[in-house]
Amino acid sequence: MALFDLPLAELREYRSASTAPDDFDAFWGKTLQEAREHDLDARFEPVDTGLSTVRVYDVTFAGFGGHPVKGWLRLPAGAAEPLPLVVEFIGYGGGRGLAHEKLLWASTGRAHFVMDTRGQGSAWGGGGGTPDPVGAAPAYPGFMTRGIDAPENYYYRRVFTDAVRAVEAARTHPLTDATRTAVIGESQGGGITLAVGALVPDLAAVAPDVPFLCDYPRAATVTDRHPYREIGLFLKTHRGRAADVLHTLSYFDGVHFAARGRAPALFSAALEDQTCPPSTVFAAFNAWAHEDKAIEVYDFNDHEGGGPFQEAHKLRWLRSYA
């Protein structure tokens, strides 16, 4: 796929037309307050993986509604003092995978926490283990329109709340240093990272790669690739509901979270990315509130983005923060 979105010079100036609801902050403040009424109840159970350089813990904590959410905590073997913490969120359809996967960040001497995504984990990878016990009104298959009838019911309200609680849970382990916490993720994981970057006030660094869940008004019309296409296909059947749908989505738009970003950030975008069009990524990057921010651009890549090249860049970048 050749370049299909705005030229790079225009991307660097692009601003989303999406408008945050007046009660955006109140909505999220109430949501997190309600979640914290449930005991976090973070439990770390050692797993025998056969690995000699990394220790792995099977983690369960209380997320949205007190629902149990799974994760993995990986620590360098022999760690005795609190370590910088990297919390990672997963791409669309994937789960936390298997205990022996994702060893990079623990290999750098950091603690690494991977959150399972409720209801997902059956599309690729090693699977997941967190159900989503909440029902929803009629929706198009996938996750993008589940509960889209109202912000209070929307699927990503639960996921973003789980993610904030995941950071809180990981920080309770005695071998994690809460003052040196970074959050990272690709695609859907990048969109979740943006939300956490706004909702957790004391992060050391934020690194969203080719983030999903940004600039919904443009994303829903500029690409016909899933998952954004789920929104259009829902509206194809539910005619005349576009304004209501976009109102719900405005509470979950990465652009509005970015405007409340409180930590140094490293983004990445791919100019041939039809899944998360570069204009939607730049919309979030350009809105990111913290002045210490950078974006890596991959000219001839689709949604794979920078892949291992971006991974190497993050390894270098994160040394200054966590």
Automatic annotation (TrEMBL):
<feature type="domain" description="Acetyl xylan esterase">
    <location>
        <begin position="1"/>
        <end position="319"/>
    </location>
</feature>
<dbReference type="InterPro" id="IPR008391">
    <property type="entry name" value="AXE1_dom"/>
</dbReference>
<feature type="active site" description="Charge relay system">
    <location>
        <position position="273"/>
    </location>
</feature>
<dbReference type="GO" id="GO:0005976">
    <property type="term" value="P:polysaccharide metabolic process"/>
</dbReference>
<dbReference type="Pfam" id="PF05448">
    <property type="entry name" value="AXE1"/>
</dbReference>
<feature type="active site" description="Nucleophile">
    <location>
        <position position="187"/>
    </location>
</feature>
<dbReference type="InterPro" id="IPR039069">
    <property type="entry name" value="CE7"/>
</dbReference>
<feature type="active site" description="Charge relay system">
    <location>
        <position position="303"/>
    </location>
</feature>
<protein>
    <submittedName>
        <fullName>Acetylxylan esterase</fullName>
        <ecNumber>3.1.1.41</ecNumber>
    </submittedName>
</protein>
<dbReference type="InterPro" id="IPR029058">
    <property type="entry name" value="AB_hydrolase_fold"/>
</dbReference>
<feature type="binding site">
    <location>
        <position position="92"/>
    </location>
    <ligand>
        <name>substrate</name>
    </ligand>
</feature>
<dbReference type="GO" id="GO:0047739">
    <property type="term" value="F:cephalosporin-C deacetylase activity"/>
</dbReference>
<keyword id="KW-0378">Hydrolase</keyword>
